[in-house]
């Protein structure tokens, strides 16, 4: 087993969401990997209210128990795969809220993106790339974009084409490489502090 831990964060909490099937597929693809351990984080299990911390996350002075629990969860990972729907040309509000709660716990870690929507969720990913840059998350080039028209039957049953498996392998390769490099950066910074 590797000492790299990567979280697959399911960024939708809607009833009847398509994201659960997408995140499960990503986790299944990742289970054969040997360079990192992948785990699913479902935001349904972390019911964060709209950001309710008085201090900015950059201060690291979390008051709420829900914030402290979320911070502890995210701090344990070296990288992330964000699974996001596209809502109104962007990511979901629940994922953006969960990201906004924290700062240092995201820093110097790597992320990849998996999206779904009528245009494959590409615009949601573009927004997440900008958000990630502000949080000092290094994002990998490879992404997975699933179309509601071609990768879902009747817009609800997830049936991804086989070409996505090869794309997932590339995403995982890039993500693990960057996550390992940034783990070394964090280790060096901690030793110098």
Quick rundown:
The protein is an alpha/beta fold. The protein has helices spanning 19-30, 65-75, 93-100, 122-134, 163-192, and strands spanning 5-10, 37-42, 79-85, 109-117, 137-147, 152-153, 157-158.
Please name the defining characteristics of this protein.
5-stranded parallel β-sheet; 193 residues; alpha/beta
Q: Report how far the terminal alpha carbons are from each other.
A: 29 Å
Q: What topology, given as strand order, has the largest sheet? A: 2-1-3-4-5
Q: What are the segments in which pLDDT stays under 50 over at least 5 consecutive residues? A: none
Order of helices and strands: EHEHEHEHEEEH
> What's the count of strands?
7
Report mean pLDDT, rounded to a whole number.
Answer: 96
Number of helices: 5
Q: Please give the largest β-sheet.
A: 5 strands, parallel
**Structural class based on helices, strands and sheet pairing:** alpha/beta
The amount of helix comes to 25-40%
How would you characterize the overall build of this protein?
With 193 residues, the protein is α/β, with parallel strands linked by helices. Helices cover 38% and strands 22% of the residues. The protein contains 5 helices and 7 strands. It has helices at 19-30, 65-75, 93-100, 122-134, 163-192, and strands at residues 5-10, 37-42, 79-85, 109-117, 137-147, 152-153, 157-158. The strands form 2 sheets. The protein has a 5-stranded parallel sheet, sandwiched between helices. Strands 6-7 form a two-stranded antiparallel sheet. The mean pLDDT is 96.
């Amino acid at each position: 087993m590797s000492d790299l831990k990567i979280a697959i964060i399911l960024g939708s909490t809607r009833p009847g969401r398509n994201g659960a099937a997408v995140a499960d597929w990503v986790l299944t693809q990742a289970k054969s990997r040997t360079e990192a351990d992948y785990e699913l984080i479902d935001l349904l299990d972390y019911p964060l209210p709209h950001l309710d911390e008085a201090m900015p996350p950059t201060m690291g002075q979390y008051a709420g128990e829900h914030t402290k629990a979320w911070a502890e969860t995210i701090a344990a990972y070296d990288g992330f795969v964000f699974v996001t729907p596209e809502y109104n040309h962007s990511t979901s509000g629940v994922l953006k809220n969960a990201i906004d709660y924290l700062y240092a716990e995201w820093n110097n870690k790597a992320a990849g993106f998996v999206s779904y929507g009528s245009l494959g969720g590409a615009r949601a990913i573009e927004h997440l790339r900008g958000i990630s840059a502000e949080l000092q998350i290094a994002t990998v080039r490879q992404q997975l974009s699933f179309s509601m028209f071609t990768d879902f039957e009747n817009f609800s049953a997830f049936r991804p084409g086989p070409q996505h498996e090869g794309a997932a392998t590339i995403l995982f390769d890039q993500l693990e490489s960057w996550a390992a490099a940034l783990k070394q950066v964090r280790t060096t910074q901690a030793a110098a502090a």
